[in-house]
């Protein structure tokens, strides 16, 4: 495949629209494949992060008259510290609660003058706690306390991230199918354009395997070249995306991390493998029709 045969290479025209089409489409599809893989891997990381962080964090919200707030907060903290599966529990300060409300109400919100519930941050152990039992105990001992284990938020977020991950892999598969279809069309066009050359080669004793090998090699290398260029540009574009920070959104975290940077390197060989298979099938069918 890499060494080639100069005589057989003359069977396939080195230039023309089929050559440019194969290289261009392979590059474009590889570029899109890199972003599809980046989306899928980033969504996978996001699902893991959301699942791990929200699964171990809970909140107790206490709504009580001003004179009873401190007593109920102390009772709730004491109960939480005695609950198996609770690693730590602490009441948020007034400044922390103001910071939580600031994105919605602005920095000048008078928290001390509003009936804002007291929030208690609860961190679970690896084994977790019995949420139903804890709710019953809070209801009995701290009537104004409500436990939120974030389950209603965690499940849809993790499910959405998992669907994004699946969409990324489905997009990569569809891109591979598009490359195969394009190479098949280009190979069919090249074989049909060289029908007279193929007939002469058969008259002088060339076998169909010899003729097919020339087309397969040329189109495989074209797909490899184009996908290599597209992969390089795609990786460069992903590398130049803004880095994710503490307040960054999901799209700023789109990219590769750690060993995931190796994944885009698989795109060129996979694209050339798809082109190889598509050209073999097209060459066999067209050469059979020309017999």
From TrEMBL:
Topology class, membrane: Multi-pass membrane protein
Localization: Cell membrane
Organism in which the protein naturally occurs: Salipiger pallidus
Keywords of the record: Cell cycle, Cell division, Cell membrane, Membrane, Transmembrane, Transmembrane helix
Keyword Transferase found: no
InterPro entries documented for this protein: ABC3_permease_C, FtsX
GO cellular component: cell division site; plasma membrane
Record protein name field: Cell division protein FtsX
């Amino acid at each position: 495949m890499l060494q080639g045969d100069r005589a057989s290479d003359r069977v396939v025209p080195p230039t023309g629209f089929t050559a440019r089409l194969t290289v261009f489409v392979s590059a474009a599809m590889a570029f899109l494949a890199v972003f599809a893989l980046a989306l899928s891997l980033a969504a996978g990381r996001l699902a893991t992060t959301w699942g791990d962080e929200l699964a171990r964090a809970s909140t107790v919200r206490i709504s009580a008259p001003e004179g009873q707030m401190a007593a109920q907060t102390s009772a709730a903290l004491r109960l939480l510290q005695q609950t198996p599966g609770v690693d730590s529990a602490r009441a948020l300060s007034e400044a922390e609660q103001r910071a939580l409300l600031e994105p919605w109400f602005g920095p000048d919100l008078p928290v001390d003058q509003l009936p804002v519930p007291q929030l208690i941050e609860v961190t679970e152990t690896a084994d977790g706690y019995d949420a139903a039992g804890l709710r019953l105990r809070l209801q009995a001992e701290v009537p104004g306390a409500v436990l939120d284990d974030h389950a209603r938020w965690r499940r849809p977020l993790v499910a959405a991230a998992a669907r994004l991950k699946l969409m990324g892999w489905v997009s990569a598969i569809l891109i591979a199918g598009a490359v195969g279809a394009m190479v098949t069309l280009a190979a069919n066009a090249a074989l049909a354009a060289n029908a007279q050359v193929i007939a002469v080669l058969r008259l002088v004793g060339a076998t169909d395997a010899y003729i097919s090998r020339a087309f397969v090699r040329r189109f495989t290398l074209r797909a490899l070249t184009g996908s290599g260029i597209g992969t390089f540009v795609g990786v460069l574009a992903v590398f130049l995306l803004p880095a994710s920070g503490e307040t960054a959104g999901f799209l700023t975290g789109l990219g590769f991390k750690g060993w995931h940077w190796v994944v885009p390197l698989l795109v060129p060989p996979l694209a050339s493998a798809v082109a190889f298979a598509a050209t073999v099938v097209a060459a066999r069918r067209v050469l059979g029709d020309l017999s």
